[in-house]
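User: Design a sequence. Structure:
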């Protein structure tokens, strides 16, 4: 990538230059006939229009996805324009979280975790769609597509939502023991990330009811209630998401709400006539070319693959759980779900193994 063009792309991403000079600056740098002299910026009299999908775009962990974005001029301009395209990831309040990619013509630069995974779809005139390969859990959220033509600058927003599942998590040493940073870590250890409010809300609409407060990705502490009851905010409150608001990320301690997406592999169950200890369970999975499954793996398999097993098995965090999609006698409560025996210090069980494709 030529140094001058790369410097221009980086400055476009940083936004540190004075807005008034945006078009003037880019016309000077990007004009093929630039002789280093200042030029006047002329307005073409056409309106720049940018459009993205009004509906959310759905994907899942490990997939490839295209976030649609197109632009046009009203009235249309026949002459070829030197268009600049910038994609940014946004927070839920629409403030910028970080840059994703900037492009001029067929040359682009991606940033951070998107480097090597993001590019502009080269599918014809007026195309500004963003292609993301190997979608990560953290990619879920809002994205701004910004198109710049000289002094004209228009944008629109598209929402990328990962198909996944939210699950509450308590560590082995008990309830309300995690500060924000520890909650973030334990979710990652379970093949998941801290859930966003939108993900928790979606889980609530699908039936999640949990009376213990947990951290979310934005540093707030909340919990979903479908059936109001006295210990869970009181009987007088309507069903909904209860919120403690933002909490101190180091001092305050709660549980965690984790988010996991569809699996990239398969889960299978191994058993032994006399059961296995945790260490024996880990070794058994390794002997099969797999690893002991994490909690996020089991929840994803239960939701997306319909995994149903009325035999408890070890998981990587030392807990013992089993997934039920078809409730029946001797398999726990009357509702589908992932049952837990907690974190037994002793005992012999089967094991759930995970093998990535």
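Assistant: Done.
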């Amino acid at each position: 990538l030529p140094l001058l063009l790369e410097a221009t792309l980086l400055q476009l991403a940083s936004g540190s230059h004075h807005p008034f000079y945006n078009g003037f600056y880019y016309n000077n740098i990007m004009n093929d006939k630039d002789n280093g002299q200042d030029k006047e910026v002329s307005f073409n009299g056409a309106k720049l229009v940018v459009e993205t999908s009004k509906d959310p775009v759905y994907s899942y962990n490990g997939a490839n996805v295209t976030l649609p974005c197109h632009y046009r001029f009203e009235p249309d301009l026949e002459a070829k324009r030197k268009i600049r395209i910038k994609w940014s990831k946004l927070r839920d309040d629409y403030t910028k979280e970080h840059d994703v990619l900037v492009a001029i013509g067929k040359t682009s630069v991606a940033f951070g975790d998107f480097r090597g995974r993001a590019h502009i779809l080269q599918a014809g005139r007026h195309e500004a769609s963003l292609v993301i390969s190997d979608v990560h859990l953290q990619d879920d959220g809002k994205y701004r597509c910004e198109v710049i033509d000289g002094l004209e600058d228009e944008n629109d927003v598209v929402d990328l939502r990962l198909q996944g599942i939210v699950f509450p998590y308590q560590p082995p040493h008990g309830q309300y023991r995690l500060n924000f940073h520890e909650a973030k870590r334990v979710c990652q250890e379970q093949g998941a990330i801290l859930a966003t409010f939108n993900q928790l809300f979606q889980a609530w609409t699908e039936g999640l009811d949990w009376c213990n407060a947990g951290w979310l990705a934005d540093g707030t502490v909340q919990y979903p209630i479908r059936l109001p009851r006295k210990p869970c905010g009181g009987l007088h409150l309507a069903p909904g998401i209860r919120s403690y608001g933002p909490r101190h990320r180091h001092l305050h301690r709660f549980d965690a709400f984790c988010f996991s997406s569809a699996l990239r592999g398969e889960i299978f169950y191994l058993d032994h006539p006399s059961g296995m200890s945790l260490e024996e369970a880990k070794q058994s999975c390794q002997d099969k070319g797999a690893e002991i499954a994490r909690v996020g793996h089991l929840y994803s398999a239960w939701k997306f693959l319909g995994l149903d097993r009325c035999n408890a098995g070890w998981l990587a965090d030392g807990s013992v759980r089993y997934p039920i999609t078809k409730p029946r006698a001797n398999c726990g409560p009357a509702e589908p779900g992932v049952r837990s025996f907690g974190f037994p210090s002793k005992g012999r069980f089967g094991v759930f193994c995970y093998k990535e494709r």
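The helical segments are 3-14, 22-30, 180-189, 197-205, 278-287, 295-304. The radius of gyration is 25 Å.
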